[in-house]
Structure formats: structure tokens, C-alpha cells
Amino acid sequence: MTDLEDLAAEKYVLLTTYRRDGRAVPTPVWAVRDGDALALWTVADSGKVKRIRRNPMVTVAPCDVRGHPHGPAVKGSATLCGPLETRRIRSLLKQKYRLLGRLTLLGSRLRRGEQGTVGVRVTLG
């Protein structure tokens, strides 16, 4: 299996973004395979989105819900998605995470609206 397949099969992955001063900020997130990349979804005005805008270099590693990694980190490059790609990523997450995914995404849409979240694609390597 490739790193992408292994990471996409995990329930959570640890996405690490980097602050302006170089400090790492790890965050456990849901992730799903999206073609040749790993896709995730987050709040549009979150710190990780701001850090990705400034520096797209990230690492991803398999982890538990609390963010404790249980495998090696893989370097990647993150790209923020537009509204259509974000909608597609939400759909992929609903398929993978089933009822919990549907309820979480619905709650987010009711709280923040359609534009309140953004998809992120991480290309490994």
C-alpha cells in the first residue's frame, strides 16, 4: 500500500501546519482519498486555513481522535479548495464517515452556512 492509501484508510490523520515562526501546529482531522490526494474539511476561518494560505507545506500522519500519532508523518503540500471542490469533498466524507459524517456536516452547515467551511487537498511527497 502507498502512504496515500494507508492514510486515507485511517479514521483520523494528524495534519501539521506551521506558524510564521516555524512552530508546528498539529490537528487531528477526518480525511478521505480524493484521486491522487488526501482531502479534508475544516472551518473556513480556522488557524490552519490561515497557516496554509501563508505556507502550504504540511505533514500528515495516522493518529487517534486525540491526535496521538501511531505512524510516521509524510510531507505534503496543501491547497485550499473552491466551493465546488469543497462540496465534492463533503460528499466523499459523508460516504466514508456514514451517519456521524452526515450529522456533523449538517450541523456545521446549519451553524456556519455553506461558505463557513472549506475543503483542503493535500498532495503527498
TrEMBL record:
GO CC annotation terms, alphabetical: cytosol
InterPro entries found in the cross-reference section: F420H2_bilvrd_red/Heme_oxyg, PPOX_F420-dep_Rv2061_put, Pyridox_Oxase_N, Split_barrel_FMN-bd
Gene3D superfamilies, sorted: Electron Transport, Fmn-binding Protein, Chain A
Keywords: Oxidoreductase
Ranges of residues in domain Pyridoxamine 5'-phosphate oxidase N-terminal: 7-80
One Gene Ontology molecular-function label: coenzyme F420 binding
NCBIfam families: Rv2061_F420
Official protein name in the record: Pyridoxamine 5'-phosphate oxidase N-terminal domain-containing protein
Organism: Micromonospora pallida
